[in-house]
């Protein structure tokens, strides 16, 4: 069950999460939430309702196939319904994303491409099975495929409460956000993990002071 699936009230945590994982500001998130509850007063969007809504706006589209893709990608807790967080992340990528992001989403159900696997096997110490395990965990925490600085800091503080999360985050993003888009994708994430956790002392020093 999603974090805000049965709540009519949008918490501060919900808003901050969605601000970090979508392009929407607080006012827009609240507007979406109000409309979501009008159509889904229980806070749960089921496939049947999703298909009916899709067919209303896109009568020429394949509603069932699209619904299957959406739920497979964004129903990350496999609850059988989409809560508001999952719904808005789906809307963000499929309606506001760039053409490249939409294509990445459309094919994300197929997992990593062979090209991705070959790249990561060539640039990290991990074998194919390990890469796939990392990818599975990454998608659970970042279903839209984007690890933002806010999310990174939260995760770091969870595991290293005494560390300087903001400073470490700055190092990681400055080094591994190679395309400077403000978030880390899976390739960049695994490159960072490989060097900072499995690298030699020399490699870690080179990374820290680059």
List the helices and strands and how they pair.
Elements: H1 12-21, H2 26-39, H3 47-57, H4 63-74, H5 84-96, H6 99-106, H7 114-123, H8 128-141, H9 149-159, H10 165-176, H11 186-198, H12 201-208
Helix pairs in contact: 3-4, 9-10
Tell me what the structure shows.
This protein is mainly alpha-helical and 210 residues long. The chain has 2 domains: 12-109, Recoverin, domain 1 (Orthogonal Bundle); 114-209, Recoverin, domain 1. It has 12 helices and no strands. The protein has helices at residues 12-21, 26-39, 47-57, 63-74, 84-96, 99-106, 114-123, 128-141, 149-159, 165-176, 186-198, 201-208. The longest helix has 14 residues, at 26-39. The model is unreliable at 1-6 (pLDDT under 50).
Task: Identify the notable features of this structure and list them briefly.
65% helix; mainly alpha; 12 helices; Recoverin, domain 1
Fill in the CATH topology of the largest domain: Recoverin, domain 1
Averaged pLDDT, please?
76
Radius of gyration: 19 Å
Strand content: under 5%
What is the number of beta strands?
Answer: 0
* Weakly predicted, low-confidence segments: 1-6
Terminal Cα separation, in Å?
Answer: 43 Å
- Quickly count the domains: 2
Proportion in helices: 55-70%
Q: How many separate helices?
A: 12
What string gives the helices and strands in order?
HHHHHHHHHHHH
**Mind telling me the CATH superfamily name of the largest domain?**
EF-hand
Report the principal-axis shape. Answer: globular
CATH first level of the largest domain: which class? Mainly Alpha
Q: Can you summarize the main beta sheet?
A: none
CATH architectural type of the largest domain:
Orthogonal Bundle
InterPro entries: EF-hand-dom_pair, EF_Hand_1_Ca_BS, EF_hand_dom, Recoverin
Organism: Tigriopus californicus (Marine copepod)
Keywords: Calcium, Metal-binding, Repeat
Protein name: EF-hand domain-containing protein
């Amino acid at each position: 069950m999603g974090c805000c699936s049965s709540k009519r009230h949008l918490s501060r945590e919900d808003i901050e999460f969605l601000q970090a994982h979508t392009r929407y500001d607080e006012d827009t998130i609240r507007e979406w939430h109000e409309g979501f509850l009008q159509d889904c007063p229980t806070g749960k969007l089921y496939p049947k309702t999703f298909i009916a809504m899709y067919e209303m706006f896109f009568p020429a589209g394949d509603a069932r196939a699209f619904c299957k893709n959406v739920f497979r990608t964004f129903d990350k807790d496999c609850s059988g319904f989409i809560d508001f967080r999952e719904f808005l992340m789906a809307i963000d990528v499929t309606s506001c994303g760039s053409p490249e992001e939409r294509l990445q989403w459309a094919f994300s159900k197929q997992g990593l491409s062979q090209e991705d696997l070959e790249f990561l096997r060539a640039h990290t110490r991990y074998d194919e099975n390990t890469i796939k395990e990392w990818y599975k965990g990454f998608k659970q925490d970042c279903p839209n495929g984007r690890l933002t600085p806010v999310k990174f800091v939260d995760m770091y503080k969870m595991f290293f409460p005494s560390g300087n999360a903001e400073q470490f985050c700055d190092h990681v993003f400055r080094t591994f956000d190679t395309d400077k888009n403000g978030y880390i994708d899976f390739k960049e994430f695994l490159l960072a993990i490989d060097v900072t956790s499995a690298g030699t002392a020399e490699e870690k020093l080179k990374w820290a002071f680059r």
